[in-house]
Amino acid sequence: MDSNEPSNTPKEEDTSQESESTCWNCGSKIKNDEWCETCKAPLTNKSKSEVMNREQSEESIKCWRCKGTTSGDICGICGSPLTKEGIKITAETVLPQIMSEVESDHNFIFVLSPRDKQMKRIPLKFSVLVDLVGNYFQIVNSVNTNVGPEIVIEMPEKNDVYDKFEQNKILVEKNLRTIIRKSISSASSEKLVILRFFYWTPEVDTNRFSFVKNRWKILLFVLTLVSLYLTGWLYYREIYKLVTIADNLHVNSLIFTGTLLAILITHEFGHLLMQRIKKIKLSLPYFLPLPPAPGLLSFFLLGSAGSIVRVVDPVRKRDDLFDLYFMGPIFGLVLSIALYLVGIAFPYIIDKSTLTPEVLTNIEVFQELKPYLFFGRLLDWIGASTGISPAFEPELQVLFIHPLAYAALVGIILNGLNFLPGSLLDGGFMFRSLFNERISRIFSFISALVVMLNYNTWTFGILIMFIPRTLYQTPATNQAIPIHWSKYVLEVLGLGIAICSLPLTIFFFV
Predict the structure, then answer these.
(1) Rounded to the nearest 10 degrees, what angle do helices 211-242 and 249-278 cross at?
(2) 429 and 482, same domain (yes or no)
(3) pLDDT tens across 153-187, in order?
């Protein structure tokens, strides 16, 4: 380390016999063999080496202590240092004698502010906070650490006690939010919960729609328009190479673009509606263009990966997090199905007698490569059974779908695949609210792999594979309240919709 660093900054060498009784980072007495209960520094050689060898924070780090996925220099879940800089912070900000009940009654406490990754000094006595918690819960243990108070409580019989506690006037006025987790070290017979606190001020909406703040969103929206237009233009250009159909090529491209854009916006409206119901603040959407790539059947790409909304304030309940992301694909899927049923009423039908054998062969190859999904075939059957689709003789005629129907078909794929438990998909956040991080990562990888194997969606799969979910959404702050059983039913429904919306033809079978 540089010579000008503070003297209390920990050294990387193993400490001597003094480390057996005192923490090498803050000097407090050691009561736990694996980590210091005062500053959360690692005490084993393995975990200490892991932290000290990490110079900078990363977007997604697996905490050595709680095994949760977080980011920054200090774990936002358990408050443990994750990097060398995090160790330095804990050494410089640790409060003296914080384990002593006599010395714990300072006129202030320190809590972490995740937004600016700094420690905030809160004008509130630790003893007052403990008494406040005691008014709602049965306290088992409490300690005031350098990254904020940590209070162990018995799990209450009714979950609404958490709501009443978090809405307490003192906590609201001090901008204190809670992280509530089940104790990972308690015995199976004990039902203990750990309360931690962080500083969070609600975001002001005065400049929410300013150009400066949203310039990247605007640019992505414009690029999405261009990408959608190119996708529609390439698809119908392939048709125009084979036959002459009604309407201008550019008109068909614009119809495709406008229809699919309306579906994407409706998808976001579903999120907006749930935001109003749950009173959860969302950012404006980030539209994700997927421009056609040279070769590789680029005229069959989707043109867009949909859009992403970011929750501005932390979400308290797992149920709310699930509902927030479930509603968007439902709205988009319903509109896509409705527009598809309208679009199949206006197909382009051409008699085979007017076409040469070579053209007919090329048309047959083109039709076989179209996106083939169960939802599409089901809607085609509904259209034929109800008389929506006009009469068509496959032996005598060839049929090309209207751009309204083709855009709706792409909309079904986009909204349906959003139910997959992939990283940046709505289904990924839904799945994460139901299961732990390890299971979510496994299913995210499987989802990305399945989507990448299809020539309609391979670029979509690349985004799912490599964009980390923690970049857009963190878990619910209250993990102690179990999620409602109905969410598991809806998750199964969503996975069924995703399977029915996945194009069936993959690279290996073409």
Answers:
(1) 140
(2) yes
(3) 998 988 889 999 999 999 999 999 999 988 766 55
d(CA 90, CA 104): 17
Q: Which residue has the tokens 């209207």?
A: 402
The residue out of 150, 174, 201 marking a domain boundary is: 201
In a domain, 121, yes or no: yes
Q: Do 261 and 319 lie in a common domain? A: yes
100 and 86: one domain?
Answer: no
SS3 breakdown of the chain: % helix, strand, coil, rounded to 5?
Answer: 45, 15, 40
In a domain, 270, yes or no: yes
User: In angstroms, rounded to a whole number, what is the distance separating the alpha carbons of residues 216 and 297?
Assistant: 29
Name the CA radius of gyration of the chain, rounded: 28
Burial class (CB in 10 A: 0-12, 13-18, 19+), 133: buried
Tens digit of pLDDT for each residue in 102-130? 344 467 888 888 877 778 888 888 889 99
Burial 402-416 (b: 16+ CB within 10 A, else e): bbbbbbbbbbbbbbb
Print the domain residue range for 302. Answer: 211-509
